[in-house]
Amino acid sequence: MTEFSRIRTFIQGYAENIAEVLGLDVTILDEQGIRVSGTGYYQDLVGLPAPEGSFFRMILQTGQPGIIYDMKKNEAECRSCKFLQQCRELATIGFPVHKREKTVGVIGLIGFSPEQKEKMVQHAEKLMTFLDHTSALIVHKLLELEEEGRLGCHLQEEVPPESGEAIYFAQLIGAETGLREVIQKANKVKNSISTVLIRGESGTGKELLARAIHCEGGRARHPFIAVNCAAIPEGLLESELFGYEGGAFTGSRREGKPGKFELAHSGTIFLDEVGDIPLSLQPKLLRVLQERTVDRVGGVKPVPVDVRVIAATHRDLEGMVREGLFREDLYYRLNVIPIRLQPLRERREDISLYIGHFLHKYGTLLQKGRLELEPPLMELLGRYDWPGNIRQLENAIEYMVNMAEDAVIGIGDVPEYLEPLAARAGTTAISRPERDEMLAAGSLEERIARYEKGVLERYLQSPEWGGDKARIADDLQISLSTLYRKLEKHQLV
Ligand SMILES: Nc1ncnc2c1ncn2[C@@H]1O[C@H](COP(=O)(O)OP(=O)(O)OP(=O)(O)O)[C@@H](O)[C@H]1O
Question: Does this model's pTM top 0.80?
Answer without folding.
Answer: no
